[in-house]
C-alpha cells in the first residue's frame, strides 16, 4: 500500500495550504476527463429561444459620456448657447428642493452625418464614426440613480442598493461557457470604486458564475493577468496535490450530498486548474500581427492601454467567453468621463478609446465574429445640456442619454428614440436600463422573465419585475 501523500497533515490544514495555491499550480494538463464540462455548472446550456448572438463585449465608459457632445445632435444648444433657463435639475431638486436656472451650453465638438445611414455623430470619436453603418444607436436611454455609485450598480445588477448578481453572472448562469477551460464571464481592469466587485459579483448565485477579473483599474493592461499562473512546483507535484485535494472534496460531498455551494466551489477549483493550460495563450498577444496591433493603437502612448484591453476582449470572445467587460475608468469615486468642469477633458479620454474601439469593430467584422458578437458601448448615464453651476462642465443626467450596440442581430446604421430638443429627457421610444437588459438577454436566447434564481423564498431576476424587449432594435 503506498505511503500517504502528505502524512501528519490534517484535512483542515491541507485545505488551508493547498486551496490558496490554485493560482500557482503548474501548467500540467486537465484535472478531470473531457466530459466533465458537460456535467458542470458552466457547461453550455441551450438557449430557450433562438439566439441572435453568442456573446457580448461591453465597453464600459465609467463616469457618463456627454451624449449631447457625441451622439445626440441638438441644434437648439447652438442656437441658445449662454441663455439662462429652468431645466428642473434633478440633483438640485434632490438636495435642496429647488432648481436654479442653468446656462445652456453648446456642444464643444462639431456634428456631422456619417456613412450611408447618415448617422449623426460628433468629431469627438472620429474613428468610431467611420463605422457608423455598423452601429445601432439608442438615443432615448434613461435609468435609475443620480450619483455614480447607484447608477453604476443599477447598470450592472439592476438595482441601486441591494446586493444582486451582475449581468455577466446572470448570463454565465443562463448559458454557461463555450470553453471548458475558461470562465463564462471576464471583466478587464475593473474599478474598485462605485460598486467595485459587486459590479461583477455573483451575489446569491453559486460562486462559479462570478466574473473573473483580469488586472484592475490603475494597473497597466500590459501587466494585467489572472493571479500567478506559474509555479516552481513540477507538473507531477502539482498534479499529486490537486488530486489529493479532489479526494478531500469528494469526501466532503459524500458527507453533504446536494450542497450546491460546495459543488460550485469545487467546480471553481477545477476551472482554476484547467485555466492554467488555456489562459496564458489567450492573455498573451505576442502572436498577433503588426497590422492587428496597429489597428488597436497598441504601441502608441495614447491608445496602448485601452487597445490592449480591447484586443484581449476579442481573444477571450474568440476563445468562448460569453461576457467580456472592458472598463475604461479609474479607482476613484469620480471616474474618467465625469467632467463637472473642464469638459474639454472628454477629448483626452476619447483619444484613448476611439481608435481601439474602432479597431475592435473592424477586427471582429473581418474575422466574421461581429455576426454573433454584440458590442455594447456606453456608461451609467449621460450629461446635462447646461453648464453645471454656470461653469465649464456638465452634471449627471440619468433622464436621457445614448448608448450604441453593434453586431449580434441589431440593426446596423440605425438610430432609435429621441430626447427633447435640449437633449435633457428621453421622450420618444424611451428605453429604460431594465429594457436594455431584457433586450440583450433576448438577443442571447434568454427570456428575462424566465431567467430566475430562487433565494430566500422568492424568485429573483436581473430585471426584477420590470423590463421589456425592444424588438424594433433587431434586424
Helix amount, in percent? 25-40%
Q: How many β-strand runs? A: 19
CATH architecture: 3-Layer(aba) Sandwich
Unreliable segments of 5+ consecutive residues: 1-38
Under CATH, the topology can be stated as: Alkaline Phosphatase, subunit A
Q: Output the radius of gyration.
A: 24 Å
Q: How many DSSP helices?
A: 13
Percentage beta strand: 15-25%
Structural class: alpha/beta
For the sheet with most strands, the description reads: 9 strands, mixed
> How many domains comprise the coordinates?
1
Shape by Cα distribution:
globular
Q: So what's the oligomer here?
A: single chain
> How would you state the average pLDDT, rounded?
88
CATH level-4 homologous superfamily? Alkaline Phosphatase, subunit A
Distance N terminus to C terminus?
A: 66 Å
| Assigned CATH class | Alpha Beta
Amino acid at each position: 500500500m503506498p505511503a500517504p501523500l502528505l502524512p501528519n497533515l490534517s484535512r483542515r490544514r491541507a485545505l488551508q495550504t493547498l486551496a490558496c495555491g490554485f493560482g500557482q499550480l503548474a501548467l500540467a494538463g486537465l484535472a478531470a476527463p473531457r466530459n466533465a464540462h458537460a456535467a458542470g455548472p458552466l457547461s453550455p446550456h441551450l438557449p430557450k429561444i433562438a439566439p441572435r448572438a453568442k456573446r457580448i463585449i461591453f465597453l464600459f465608459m465609467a463616469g457618463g459620456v456627454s451624449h449631447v457632445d457625441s451622439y445626440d445632435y441638438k441644434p437648439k444648444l447652438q442656437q441658445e448657447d449662454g441663455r439662462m433657463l429652468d431645466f428642473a435639475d434633478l440633483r438640485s431638486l434632490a438636495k435642496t428642493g429647488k432648481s436654479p436656472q442653468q446656462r445652456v451650453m453648446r456642444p464643444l465638438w462639431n456634428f456631422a452625418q456619417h456613412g450611408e445611414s447618415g448617422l449623426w455623430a460628433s468629431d469627438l470619436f472620429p474613428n468610431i464614426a467611420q463605422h457608423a453603418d455598423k452601429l445601432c444607436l439608442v438615443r432615448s436611454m434613461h435609468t435609475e440613480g443620480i450619483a455614480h455609485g447607484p447608477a453604476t450598480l443599477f447598470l450592472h445588477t439592476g438595482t441601486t442598493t441591494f446586493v444582486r448578481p451582475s449581468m455577466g453572472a446572470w448570463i454565465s448562469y443562463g448559458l454557461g461557457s463555450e470553453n471548458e477551460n475558461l470562465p463564462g464571464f471576464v471583466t478587464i481592469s475593473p474599478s474598485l470604486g462605485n460598486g467595485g466587485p459587486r459590479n461583477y459579483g455573483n451575489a446569491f448565485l453559486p460562486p462559479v458564475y462570478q466574473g473573473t477579473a483580469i488586472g484592475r483599474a490603475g494597473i497597466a493592461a500590459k501587466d494585467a493577468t489572472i493571479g500567478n499562473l506559474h509555479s516552481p512546483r513540477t507538473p507531477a507535484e502539482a498534479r499529486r496535490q490537486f488530486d489529493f485535494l479532489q479526494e478531500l472534496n469528494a469526501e466532503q460531498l459524500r458527507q453533504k450530498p446536494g450542497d450546491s455551494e460546495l459543488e460550485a466551489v469545487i467546480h471553481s477549483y477545477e476551472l482554476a486548474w484547467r485555466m492554467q493550460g488555456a489562459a496564458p495563450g489567450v492573455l498573451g498577444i505576442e502572436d498577433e500581427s503588426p497590422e492587428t496591433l496597429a489597428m488597436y493603437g497598441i504601441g502608441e502612448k495614447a491608445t496602448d492601454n485601452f487597445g490592449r484591453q480591447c484586443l484581449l476582449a476579442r481573444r477571450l470572445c474568440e476563445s468562448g467567453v460569453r461576457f467580456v467587460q472592458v472598463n475604461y475608468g479609474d479607482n476613484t469615486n469620480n471616474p474618467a468621463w465625469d467632467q463637472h468642469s473642464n469638459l474639454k477633458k472628454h477629448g483626452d479620454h476619447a483619444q484613448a478609446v476611439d481608435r481601439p474601439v474602432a479597431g475592435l469593430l473592424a477586427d471582429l467584422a473581418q474575422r466574421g465574429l461581429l455576426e454573433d458578437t454584440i458590442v455594447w458601448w456606453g456608461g451609467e448615464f449621460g450629461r446635462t445640456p447646461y453648464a453645471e453651476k454656470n461653469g465649464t462642465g456638465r452634471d449627471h443626467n440619468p433622464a436621457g442619454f445614448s448608448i450604441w450596440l453593434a453586431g449580434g442581430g441589431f440593426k446596423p446604421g440605425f438610430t432609435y428614440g429621441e430626447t427633447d430638443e435640449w437633449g435633457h429627457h428621453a421622450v420618444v421610444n424611451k428605453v429604460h436600463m431594465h429594457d436594455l437588459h431584457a433586450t440583450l438577454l433576448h438577443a442571447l436566447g434568454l427570456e428575462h422573465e424566465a431567467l430566475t434564481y430562487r433565494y430566500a423564498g422568492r424568485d429573483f431576476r436581473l430585471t426584477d419585475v420590470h423590463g421589456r424587449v425592444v424588438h424594433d432594435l433587431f434586424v
